[in-house]
């Protein structure tokens, strides 16, 4: 029985959860240099081992499809916040995705990067079984977390973003800065915690489930680095000050699997982003 390293195990588990066909996974492994027979055996085993996990990331409404209810973000061409008018450049209804220009000024982007630059740590990802934060190769970035409203500058941005997302400021996690060097990427994943996976309880104990994400681009990227929703066919380019919002939990508590998304590999230059995750309840 051939064994694969941890990076391939992650890749297999993620793609089984996404519902990829075994054939497409075998093809990808053969292209990466695996023997076809060995790849078939490895993929078959991963499919069996991960099938329960795959069930766990389906919408919590069981067999019922995700029902799209009204998105909390204000309608119109511009969303007005207390200190900035933010232009809307794209709205998608299914999944609920909105792209914005000018959420932050160039100076604000620079200040965030400079504050985070010397405090970055290799990014981690939630282990679905244990709930612990693991360093994995599916996510090659470095990150830094601000405390929510930790000073006047961060408070202004936390408030602006809460108004833009039209969700209570107290339900937001702290702002996170992420840095990707050339080759860095974040392979497709869900931002919500899969309800049936044992590790999720640790995270939802504090503030409940994540309901929506805002990714703000702090830099232009010379090559690559787009945010991609592979099952919805949506690609958002990283442009300094712009942002993408997506919502994955509706008022009934269902979770939208069409929000599977990733950060494409950076092929030139570097990429800086900031993320805000909103929860069901106050995040304390
Ligand atoms: O860097 C990105 O574009 C990206 C894409 C998907 C970041 C995240 N998800 C994330 O931090 O969750
Ligand atoms: Zn994400």
TrEMBL record:
Show the InterPro entries listed in the entry. Oxoglu/Fe-dep_dioxygenase_dom, P4HA-like, Pro_4_hyd_alph, Pro_4_hyd_alph_FE2OG_OXY
Could you tell me the EC number(s) of this protein?
1.14.11.2
Which domain of life, per UniProt? Bacteria
Ordered alphabetically, the record's keywords are:
Dioxygenase, Iron, Metal-binding, Oxidoreductase, Vitamin C
The answer to whether the entry has keyword Oxidoreductase is: yes
Q: What class of enzyme is it?
A: oxidoreductase
Cofactor section = L-ascorbate
Q: Name one GO molecular function term.
A: iron ion binding
- Tell me the ranges covered by the Fe2OG dioxygenase domain, including all copies: 171-280
Which SMART domains does the entry link to?
Answer: P4Hc (SM00702)
Protein name listed in UniProt: Protein similar to eukaryotic Peptidyl prolyl 4-hydroxylase, alpha subunit
Q: Which organism is it from?
A: Paraburkholderia piptadeniae
Upper classification of the organism: Bacteria, Pseudomonadati, Pseudomonadota, Betaproteobacteria, Burkholderiales
């Amino acid at each position: 029985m051939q064994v694969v390293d941890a990076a391939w195990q992650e890749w297999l588990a993620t793609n089984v959860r996404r519902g990829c066909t075994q054939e497409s996974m075998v093809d990808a492994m053969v292209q990466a240099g695996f023997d076809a027979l060995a790849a078939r055996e490895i993929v078959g085993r991963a499919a069996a081992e991960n099938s329960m996990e795959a069930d766990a990331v389906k919408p919590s409404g069981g067999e019922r499809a995700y029902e799209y209810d009204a998105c909390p973000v204000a309608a119109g061409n511009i969303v007005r916040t207390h200190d900035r008018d933010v232009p809307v450049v794209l709205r998608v209804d299914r999944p609920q995705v909105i792209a914005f220009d000018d959420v932050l000024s160039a100076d604000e982007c620079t200040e965030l990067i400079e504050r985070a630059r010397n405090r970055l740590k290799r990014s981690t990802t939630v282990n679905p079984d244990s709930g612990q934060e693991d360093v994995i190769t599916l996510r090659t970035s470095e990150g830094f977390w601000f405390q929510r409203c930790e000073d006047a500058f961060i408070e202004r941005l936390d408030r602006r973003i809460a108004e833009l997302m039209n969700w209570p400021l107290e339900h937001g996690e702290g702002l996170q800065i992420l840095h990707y060097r050339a080759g860095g990427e974040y392979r497709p994943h869900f931002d919500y915690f899969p309800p049936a996976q044992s590790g999720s309880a640790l995270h939802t104990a504090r503030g409940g489930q994540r309901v929506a994400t805002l990714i703000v681009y702090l830099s232009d990227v010379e090559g690559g680095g787009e945010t991609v929703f592979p099952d919805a066919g949506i690609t958002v380019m990283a442009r300094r000050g712009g942002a993408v919002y997506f919502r994955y939990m509706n008022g009934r508590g269902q979770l939208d699997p069409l929000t599977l998304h990733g950060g494409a590999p950076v092929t030139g230059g570097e990429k800086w982003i900031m993320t805000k995750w909103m929860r069901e309840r106050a995040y304390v």
